[in-house]
Amino acid sequence: MNSENMQNILIIGAGTMGLQIGFLCAVHGCSVAVYDVDQGVLAQAEKRVKTLAKRFSQQNRLSPEAVEQTLARLSFTSDPEAAGRDADLVSESVPEDPALKGKIFAQFHKICPPRTIFTTNTSSLVPSMFAKATGRPERFLAFHFHDVVTSNIVDVMPHPGTLPEVTAAVKTFAEKIGQIPIMLQKEHPGYVFNTMLMSFLGEALSMAAKGVASIEDIDRAWMGVMHTQVGPFGIMDSVGLDTVWKITSYWAEKRQDPKARKNADFIKKYLDEGSLGQKSGRGFYSYPDPAFARRGFLRSRNPRPADKK
After folding, report:
1. Residue 295, domain member (yes or no)
2. Closest by alpha carbon to 67, among 57, 59, 81?
3. Cα three-residue angle 200-202-203, rounded to 5 degrees
4. In the chain, how many domains are there?
5. Domain-located, residue 83
6. Domain with 174 in it: what CATH number?
7. pLDDT tens digits, 184-195
8. What is the pLDDT of residues 15-27, one digit of tens each?
9. In 29-45, which positions are buried (b, 16+ CB within 10 angstroms) versus exposed (e)?
10. Domain contains 301
11. β pairing state of 89-92 and 74-77
12. pLDDT, tens digit (0-9, with 9 covering 90-100), for 204-249
């Protein structure tokens, strides 16, 4: 499999990460079909991708002409046949449910050509959990992206049945689209960065769930000491609280972890209110002007009195 022949990309799932992955591939000259069963989600994605293009333009990563060319390479559809019949590579970003992922891949196995490589952008599962269900386990692996606006790191994680040449082709494709591939030698839930990140976010959630400190002060502690622009709760708003909840809840049940269950319950209260993070305009913070991004968020609440004359 020659990565130079990977020109037709199918994105399954028009959520935040699916849209980002599709846009990135289009930036680098690929023809991209974004598929979702929900017409409302597709309609929103078509609007959101223009905002994404604007951010790339503001970062001087795309000229106005390149923006137009990139957007022209993207199509949005709820027709699986139209989406998959010419695909060279599939990237899946649907909810963190191995049964659901397996079912969707099985559907596209019947549609996509035999040459098509299947990849999953799962955040916390491992590909062997649903490799057999894809119908082509030897041409399937995890290809996991981070926020493409701020990061160019991707994880490439085969399962024991993935053909080495397929893994090599995906690695080369990652480099073709300007990414730095982190090659995992064995399956590991959460990959490399996410394993560290989830431990970090889990401890922040646990402190908030137990009432140790407010969400804002937990973020202030991290931002103030580490000199970052965002803290753990701002990060979770960016990821999406529904995604964070699904991951936390899944592993809480899988591992029978009471601490993780309490964290999942803490997040669920926000979901029940419709607060999903940045994408819904409200999560732990309100958007587009979150408190943590405002001037003065890290200033002392009790400034030192002026020196006496």
Report:
1. no
2. 57
3. 70
4. 2
5. yes
6. 3.40.50.720
7. 999 999 899 988
8. 989 999 999 999 9
9. ebbbbbbbeeeebbebb
10. no
11. unpaired
12. 999 999 999 999 999 999 999 999 999 999 999 998 999 899 889 9
Q: What is the reported pTM?
A: 0.80
Quick check: 2 pLDDT over 90? no
Q: Tell me: do 43 and 148 sit in the same domain.
A: yes
Q: Are residues 240 and 112 part of one domain? A: no
Residues 174 and 254 in one domain: no
DSSP per-residue string spanning the chain: --GGG--EEEEE--SHHHHHHHHHHHHTT-EEEEE-S-HHHHHHHHHHHHHHHHHHHHTTSS-HHHHHHHHHTEEEES-HHHHHTT-SEEEE---S-HHHHHHHHHHHHTTS-TTPEEEE--SS--GGGTTGGGS-GGGEEEEEE--TTT--EEEEEE-TTS-HHHHHHHHHHHHHTT-EEEE-SS--TTTTHHHHHHHHHHHHHHHHHTTSS-HHHHHHHHHHHHT-S--HHHHHHHH-HHHHHHHHHHHHHHHT-HHHHHHHHHHHHHHHTT--BGGGTBSSSBSSS-GGGSTTTTS-SSPPPPPP-
Structure tokens at 208: 């908030």
Q: What is the CATH number of the domain that holds 228?
A: 1.10.1040.10
